[in-house]
Specification:
Layout lengths: L3 H28 L1 H41 L4 H19 L8 H9 L4 H4 L2 H16 L7 H19 L4 H20 L2 H12 L8 H19 L14 H30 L5 H9 L1 H18 L9 H9 L8 H14 L7 H15 L8 H17 L2 H12 L5 H18 L4 H6 L10 H9 L6
Length: about 475
């Protein structure tokens, strides 16, 4: 038998070892200057993302005001301003800010998956040009949004600060990019939960589980900064519409299928345009003379704006709010006209996203669908249509319904919104099998350098000669 003293020694030794290891790690974590510098830089970067989103939002409001002022002077003035403006933006983009064109989310995805393009698409110069050129495009009447560009800007801010501190591990660098992109979407939409889920669903599905704490901290700091300045008011106003589960299945199915078909078609068209899929002489004209092609797109955009009485210009926030709140009547053809205006704006090659225009298109289509189901509240159909169309475009159902729920301050329709998003995503994948942003990200990969994820898959495959 063992003596009592020997038994006590066996019991005390593991506890002492544990306490020594704990105190050693605690001192290392708490007193290490390098860790504190990294933390302070990261926290400061997240706050900078929130502040940038605030000024970007103020600039977008100012740009929309300038566009409305031009419209009030003379609607036909847009036939001159919009073509010249879009042509000028494309010329500046191609000569000084290559990599800033389009949404900005594909650039962030490309930077995550391929280190060879990381410093090219996530530079402060490109981010500055992205903001300025997006605002100029809005001022000229383009149907674009600022949320996608804010993802690239947020990722750029965090990536640039990370280079000063020299984060050594590759996953830490990717975590900074993920956190910056998620913080950008959270601050732009004033929707922190959507920012967290957006990083999981859209930006990365392979790195996010290792960087959840980094993403969460970045989103919280950026969201608190945005809410502290702008308040907690939803961007699309308050919507108190609700649906009983026994009457929800008809509008859920209708909005899910219809939104998935239209949203998937929209994504399919954008992918085809990015790959030079414009037919015949039009495609050749776009490739050889991009500035003249953008000018032509601007003229078409101005004609659409004249036909819609100016409602298709800009982000679509104001029109979507009017539709949701029922405060102003819009033409029944608003949805299809905004749909066409957004495609033309993207085809022109100017910087700008499709998030807010897609939500506005969904609201417009919801106004049309409500005519076929008069027994269902109009506000409920509009929310379901927004979720359905947006989920069809981005194929990220959780992000979609969270954004709409947070931006309309409506928590009564969580189940119908989720069901609509899932149905629309499934239908959209039939129309457009490849997700929009991941496919658009491929254009930023060098032709001789595949993404890191694909190269890892290739390495894992057995060779024929082995």
């Amino acid at each position: 038998m063992l003596s009592r003293r020997f038994k006590r020694t066996l019991q005390v030794l593991p506890l002492r070892r544990f306490l020594r290891r704990f105190l050693r790690r605690f001192r290392h974590r708490l007193l290490s200057p390098r860790i504190w510098i990294r933390a302070l830089v990261f926290w400061g970067g997240s706050i900078c993302v929130g502040i940038t989103a605030i000024f970007f939002g103020i600039g977008a409001e100012w740009a929309n005001y300038c566009e409305q002022l031009l419209w009030k002077i003379s609607p036909y003035l847009m036939l001159l301003v919009t073509p010249l403006g879009l042509g000028t933006v494309v010329w500046i983009t191609n000569h000084f800010f290559v990599g800033s064109q389009g949404s900005g989310i594909p650039q962030a995805i490309a930077a995550l998956n391929n280190e060879h393009v990381r410093d090219q698409v996530l530079s402060l110069r490109i981010a500055f040009g992205k903001i300025i050129l997006t605002l100029v495009g809005l001022c000229c009447g383009a149907s674009i949004g600022r949320e996608g560009p804010m993802v690239q800007v947020g990722a750029t801010i965090m990536h640039s600060l990370g280079r000063f501190v020299r984060f050594s591990r590759l996953q830490s660098k990717k975590g900074l990019i993920l956190a910056g992109g998620a913080a950008g979407i959270a601050a732009a939409f004033n929707a922190p939960l959507a920012g967290i889920v957006f990083a999981t669903e859209e930006l990365s599905r392979s790195h996010v589980h290792r960087t959840n704490g980094t993403i969460l901290t970045g989103v919280i700091l950026a969201g608190v900064t945005s809410m502290g300045v702008l308040g907690d008011s939803p961007f699309f106003g308050h919507n108190s519409a609700s649906l009983q589960l026994d009457q929800a299945w008809i509008p859920v199915l209708l909005c899910g299928v219809f939104g998935g078909l239209l949203g998937g078609s929209f994504a399919h068209v954008l992918i085809a345009i990015s790959r030079g899929g414009l037919p015949g002489k039009v495609g050749m004209f776009a490739r050889k003379r991009p500035v003249a092609f953008a000018t032509s797109c601007g003229f078409i955009l101005a004609l659409i704006g004249l036909f819609s009485n100016g409602t298709t210009f800009g982000t679509g926030y104001t029109e979507a709010r009017h539709i949701i709140e029922g405060s102003q009547e819009l033409p029944l053809q608003y949805g299809i006209l905004k749909f066409l205006a957004t495609i033309v704006s993207y085809a022109s090659g100017i910087p700008g996203g499709v998030f807010s225009p897609s939500l506005a298109v969904g609201a417009g289509f919801g106004l049309n669908l409500s005519q076929f189901i008069p027994s269902v509240p109009v506000g409920a159909v509009i929310l379901l249509s927004m979720v359905g169309y947006f989920a069809g475009v981005v194929q990220a159902p959780i992000t979609t319904f969270l954004i709409v729920m947070e931006m309309t301050d409506n928590h009564e329709m969580v189940i119908p919104l989720m069901a609509t998003a899932l149905i629309a995503t499934a239908v959209s994948r039939i129309v457009c099998p490849r997700p929009l942003y991941n496919t658009l990200a491929e254009r930023f990969f060098p032709h001789d350098q595949p993404s890191q994820e694909s190269s890892k898959v290739d390495e894992a495959k057995p060779h024929r000669n082995s």
